Q: What sequence folds into this?
């Protein structure tokens, strides 16, 4: 079976993007800098991974392809994430931390890899359905902003105080951005719906013009 080169390239880009996402979180945590620490928390957060699977599904035309590609790319990204953390463990400055046993690594990869594969499929499918124009696709387009709002609110309550001011500001900014995105998507669709309703009413309110009588060509109406 021949697969177009463009299709192969697009699939490769998806998997490479997932690997980059997997590495960025633990990589940023290695720097003794509050900004890098905050970036590491963001890239390792659940909503960032959910957003990745959602965008993969959004980029696919086929529902089956969106579910399969999102789940596969997410599972591969989880494997890369744990392998990277095992090979390059993050440790506080001046301390040496063991990377753990190979058995522990295998169990984490197995559990979270399977979870990513199972959960990535519906998230990718939701991303594909979000392509549907109008009210039909609106609930699915609101999934990611709503997920970000819920997670960042929970992190602000439980983690922000112990992580420092930079992390607290980061979560707060992301939560505000998610709230704005949620409101913009909702307001935009409501305005488009009202515009369609107004256009329909205008069409139905136009008076029907009487049909004009057509005369045969060459027929003299005065005779």
A:
């Amino acid at each position: 079976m021949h697969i177009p080169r463009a299709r192969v390239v697009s699939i490769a880009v998806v998997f490479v993007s997932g690997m980059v996402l997997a590495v960025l979180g633990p990589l940023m945590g290695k720097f003794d800098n509050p900004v890098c620490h905050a970036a590491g928390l963001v890239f390792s957060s659940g909503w960032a991974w959910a957003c990745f699977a959602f965008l993969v599904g959004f980029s696919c035309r086929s529902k089956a392809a969106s579910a399969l590609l999102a789940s596969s790319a997410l599972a591969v990204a989880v494997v890369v994430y744990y392998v990277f953390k095992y090979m390059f463990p993050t440790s506080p400055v001046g301390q040496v931390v063991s990377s753990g046993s190979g058995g522990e690594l295998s169990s984490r990869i197995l559990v979270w890899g399977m979870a990513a594969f199972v959960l990535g499929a519906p998230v990718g499918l939701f991303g594909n359905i979000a392509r549907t124009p109008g009210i039909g696709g609106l609930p699915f387009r609101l999934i990611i902003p709503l997920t970000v709002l819920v997670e960042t609110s929970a992190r602000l309550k439980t983690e922000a105080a112990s992580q420092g001011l930079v992390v607290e500001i980061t979560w707060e900014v992301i939560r505000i951005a998610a709230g704005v995105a949620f409101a913009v998507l909702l307001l935009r669709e409501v305005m488009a719906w009202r515009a369609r309703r107004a256009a329909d009413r205008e069409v139905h309110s136009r008076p029907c013009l009487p049909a004009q009588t057509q005369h045969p060509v060459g027929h003299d109406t005065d005779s």
